Amino acid sequence: MEVLKQRIITDGRIEKGDILKVDSFLNHQIDIELFNEIGKEFKKLYQHHDITKILTIEASGIGIACIAAQYFHVPVVFAKKTESLNLDENTFNSKVYSYTKQKSYEIIVSKRYIQKEDRVLIIDDFLANGKAALGLRDIVIQAGASLEGIGIVIEKTFQPGGELLRQQGIRVDSLAKVKAMENGRVIFKN
Amino acid sequence: MEVLKQRIITDGRIEKGDILKVDSFLNHQIDIELFNEIGKEFKKLYQHHDITKILTIEASGIGIACIAAQYFHVPVVFAKKTESLNLDENTFNSKVYSYTKQKSYEIIVSKRYIQKEDRVLIIDDFLANGKAALGLRDIVIQAGASLEGIGIVIEKTFQPGGELLRQQGIRVDSLAKVKAMENGRVIFKN
User: Fold this and answer.
1) Which of A8, A159, A176, B56 is deepest in the core (most CB within 10 A)?
2) What is the pLDDT of residues A63-83, one digit of tens each?
3) B106 close to B82: Cβ distance less than 8 angstroms
4) Taking Cα atoms as reference points, which of B23, B64, B62 lies closest to residue B43?
5) Does the distance separating the beta carbons of B70 and A59 come in below 8 Å?
6) What is the CATH code for A2-188?
7) Burial, B171: exposed, middle or buried (Cβ in 10 Å; 0-12, 13-18, 19+)?
8) What percentage of residues in chain B have a pLDDT greater than 90?
9) Whole-angstrom Cα distance, residue B95 to residue B86?
10) Contacts of B123 in chain A (CB under 8 A)
11) Which of the residues A32, A70, A80, A123 would you substitute to probe the B interface, choosing the one with the greatest number of B C-beta atoms within 10 Å?
12) What is the pLDDT of residue A85?
């Protein structure tokens, strides 16, 4: 998605440790007009999939999921994170390991909000190690629903998440694929 | 806001301890069409305020803030929560006490994203004790920006937050004011 790549080049910052910061428009301050373009793009990619629900995870997936949902006319469900083990029998739970925080947390979705008839599109802002996406997929499986695909804004292809998911036959659409950061510049795949 | 009150009556659940659960449309599953009506209402209330930025807090404020921002054509900034003391000199920080979790956490906003020229509307899903709203207001003050008002979806008027904020001269607009839960029914103020 060209407008997104341009925005990453213009406003992304590369910080020490080759960390790409896009918090001026994606995950701290949010550019709503860009999000609308992203939402339209996801709709274009999944227009023939009769999506009934968009699933994301708190916190930074929520904005994109909500704006995108307007083009699908479906509800958003966001998984909640908790550090305590959840034993509520009314929820689907999955364990996710966070490399950033170097610890595991539980993600929770009420059984009320994903049913086996649902055709689910997972949306998230970043794909790196893929642990959050796998946890969300696990919840879709527990619900007996159909996972139609995963829509990602920025995939870091130098981390294993994308490959891991695609190897398992999951459709993953990433609107910008970052291959590397070199000399303070972002290199995209393709 | 009549459509919101009706929705609370229809789909809100009152759980033990007189807790109002609205997670079927507000803070777990999200009804995007309702959010659009809420967004339009906030715009109507603040149309003459030249709002330049919408400020909210993760996680459940983000969806409403993003949908509402479309009517204002301004960016959203969401404060991040952290349990560790943040000493980054590039951020505004404030301490918030959570009655639900019975502990304090820090909220953080990068100094990049609120400037003294900004005219800020704070948006959040719930107002109860008002601690999160006061923390966000503290950050607006630190930035030297103008706080135009606080837009809330559901205020629990039997808790002290709304009064506390209004006593300090802050404009607070709550689209539904819940006065009490009695015999499994929600009683609205006015």
Assistant:
1) B56
2) 999 999 999 999 999 999 998
3) yes
4) B64
5) no
6) 3.40.50.2020
7) middle
8) 89
9) 10
10) none
11) A32
12) 73
Q: How far apart are CA B138 and CA B111, in angstroms?
A: 13
Candidates A24, A58, A65; nearest CB to B112: A24
CB-CB under 8 Å, B113 with A24: yes
**Binary contact (B58, A59; C-beta < 8 A):** yes
Instruction: Indicate the burial class of B185 (C-beta count within 10 angstroms; 0-12, 13-18, 19 or more).
Output: exposed
Residues 6+ apart with CB under 8 A from A52: A74, A117, A118, A119, A120
Residues B16, B86 contacting (CB under 8 angstroms):
no
Round the average pLDDT of chain A to a whole number and report it: 95
Residue B84 has pLDDT above 80, yes or no: no
Sort out which chain B residues have CB atoms less than 8 A from A60's CB and list them. 58, 62
Least confident of A73-82, B133-142, B153-162, B179-188: B179-188
- B2-79+118-188: what CATH class? alpha beta
CB within 8 Å: B66 and A30: yes
Angle in degrees, CA A47, A53, A58, rounded to 5:
120
| Closest in A31, A69, A75 to B75, CB measured | A31
CA distance B79 to chain A (A): 7
Q: A107 — contact with chain B (CB < 8 Å)?
A: no
pTM for the model stands at 0.97
CB contact, 8 Å: B77 with chain A?
yes
**Percent of chain B's residues with pLDDT above 70:** 99
The gap between the terminal CA atoms of chain A, to the nearest Å, is 11
